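Thread: quick sanity check before group meeting

JM: Hey all, I'm pulling together slides for Thursday and realized we never actually wrote out the predicted structure for the chain we discussed last week. Dropping the sequence here so it's in one place. If anyone has concerns about the input, flag it before I start.
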Amino acid sequence: MPYINLKLVGKLTRVQKEKIAQEFSDTLLKVAGKPKEALYLVIDEVNGENWAKGDKFFG
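JM (edit): ok, ran it. Output follows.
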């Protein structure tokens, strides 16, 4: 079973999350032959205050 953990800075709408899930599941079906029902997707929306690149925080 495929498991994807997507982390990003900021918030997504429900519609955006649904579209991301659709795109990931479509790709896994086309490329790996994995049925959409097998995908587990977790989206972690991280506050920019908690995410840095080097010594620069996004928040």
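AS: nice. The first strand starts at residue 3 and ends at 9. The chain has a mean pLDDT of 95.
JM: adding both to the slides.
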